[in-house]
Amino acid sequence: MLIGDCASDPPLGATQRTLAAARAADVVYGLGAVALARGHRKLALAVADPEARAALAQAIATLAADVALLDVADAWPAVAAGPDDEVLPASALALVADAARGRPAAATVSVVGAVAEPMVLGCAATTTMAELAARAGGAVDADWLPVAGGAPAGRLVARAATLAEAGAPSLVLVLPAGHEWVRRLRTTVGDWLWRAASACEGCRACSDACPAGLQAHALVATLATARDDGTAPAAFAACTGCGVCDAACPAALSPRALAVDVRERLARAGVA
Description:
Strand content: 15-25%
Order of helices and strands: EHHEHEEHEEHEEEHHHHHH
Oligomer: single chain
Largest sheet: 5 strands, mixed
Number of helices: 11
Helix content: 25-40%
Shape: globular
Radius of gyration: 20 Å
């Protein structure tokens, strides 16, 4: 099944829900185009917002599309997919529709945090972080930094970075430079390892919270002690980087930082 995700915005974000409501016909069209190209026979759109659901239902009827609407929890991540399912966000489906119809690609992004007017904006991929903050009423702190993707799953980027250079995130979080999450994102993997070696209690809270069912506590222990204890790091190719494990950690460590580093090393080595 091909599932268009119109619900699972990062915390503080509303890009997918807003896009599904405002560009429902393009989302449905893009879903069909991807399904045709990749051979999917079953199509669905996951929704949590009533306005988006109504708009998508109307678009499905207008296009006479065979697409199911899946009502999911208003939480992130919200979409549970099977091993043979493919999930694409509404923003990606809208870009497919733009390309298929010969229109310039338009990015949609939530700009939130320390700005005067948090909002969802439509803009070009060449728009910079500084321009996004200005369009959201300006940053409320002169010494601010943008986090592409939001916290805890995002990364710090320069104010001059464009949306394309930042990886086309659906959310940009503006934070004062002295904010706790900025300090966490600036912490190196080596420092997280050092902290884990002294503070991880092996409580499994991170593993119990992981939406992907990964044994994050085992990975943290393996890396922090540098022992071959039977843990299979290759499993962490499936890490989504959502950061739920960080939120669950009672010692304020970052299992996510270690898991994402392993995931990226596996990707560079060609492990799917």
